[in-house]
Specification:
By secondary structure, the chain is α/β, with parallel strands linked by helices. The protein has helices spanning 15-29, 45-48, 65-72, 131-140, 153-161, 172-177, 211-217, 223-239, 283-299, 302-316, and strands at 7-11, 37-41, 78-82, 94-99, 107-111, 125-127, 145-147, 167-171, 186-187, 202-207, 247-254, 257-265, 272-280.
């Protein structure tokens, strides 16, 4: 915490990122004797590289690296991220201090005419910047023309309405948080269109050992979100993937059980591998569950499938 006693929250400046940071700030402020909170806007490499498709960009942490660096350097006290953007291995000196309750994890189709995915016209132009979404779109609509789509959520919707696309795919959580859920044409079922790892979860990081900050974040951590995200991120870590791998996964907590479903899909949709397993809904069981599902996928050929996809993209990328 700063010398003035103000908790400085690092965030991107997009509308969605600011919504997430303000949600964290409001939850901190709701606690008795809470400190003052200040939002610090930080521009990331993902913001700067707004035209190049992310899957053609080397590395990870495009939307988190600079914010986490500011946290480590003491320029901010808290970093707020969409957890799906955060690498599964945090930088040394950082801790994932809180996970907020998960919003709707599904993807949503937004089409110009309100048409569902199956009813879009032949060779419909569908926009997305995600390899995962491209793969599952190719699986469900192999005739579709898949086009790159970058920019914040309102910009993407504006480009759709201008006629650059027939439909686009977005995260349901982001659409709802920005008050734009009325644009949704179809919520895509996770069993056929699994979401990104940790989609819908807001992650809050602090410096390891910074007890004066962490005490305000501990109350924000939600058990079910922590269990689900721990399982999903362990799966992703074991598969050595990232946002550039066509992998979808969803962990759910029902009663005393934690269930994880995951699917790896070829980019052209021609082949996919799915695995599902359950474990007791306990903190000690979540990561082993993720590893177990990853091992099942690897045993059935997921490693070779992902390697062939990476090799194909390395040839195609400029």
């Amino acid at each position: 915490m700063s010398r003035a006693g103000t908790l400085r929250i690092g965030t991107r400046a997009s509308a969605l990122a600011l919504w997430q940071a303000r949600e964290v700030a409001a939850r901190i402020a709701a606690q008795p004797d809470a400190p003052a909170v200040e939002l610090v806007h930080i521009r990331t490499s993902g913001d700067q590289q707004s035209e190049l498709p992310l899957w053609q960009t080397r590395g990870q942490a495009f939307f988190t690296r600079e914010i986490d660096r500011a946290l480590l350097d003491g320029e901010v006290d808290v970093a707020v991220h969409s957890l799906k953007d955060l690498p599964t291995q945090l930088d040394a000196g950082l801790a994932l201090a809180a996970l907020l309750p998960r919003a709707d994890p599904r993807d949503v189709l937004v089409s110009r005419t309100g048409t569902a995915l199956a009813a879009l016209p032949a060779r419909a132009r569908i926009g997305t910047s995600s390899l995962r979404r491209r793969a599952f779109l190719a699986r469900l609509r192999p005739d579709a023309t898949l086009l790159e789509l970058r920019g914040n959520v309102p910009t993407r919707i504006e480009r759709l309405q201008r006629g650059e696309y027939d439909a686009i795919v977005l995260a349901a959580a982001g659409l709802a948080r920005l008050g734009l859920a009325q644009h949704a044409s179809e919520y895509l079922a996770p069993d056929s269109f699994p979401p990104a790892v940790s989609q819908g979860v807001i992650g809050v990081c602090a410096r390891s050992g910074d007890e004066s900050t962490s005490r305000w974040l501990a109350a924000l951590d939600e058990r079910d979100a922590r269990l689900a995200a721990s399982a999903e991120r362990a799966l992703l870590r074991r598969l050595e993937g990232g946002c550039q791998v066509p992998l979808g996964a969803l962990a759910t907590v029902e009663g005393g059980s934690l269930t994880l479903m995951a699917c790896v899909c070829a980019l052209d949709g021609s082949r996919h591998l799915t695995a599902t397993a359950s474990a007791p809904a306990a903190a000690a069981e979540a990561e082993p569950l993720g590893v177990r599902v990853a091992e099942e996928l690897l045993g059935r050929g997921a490693g070779e499938l992902m390697a062939s996809e990476r090799q194909a993209r390395a040839v195609e990328a400029p």
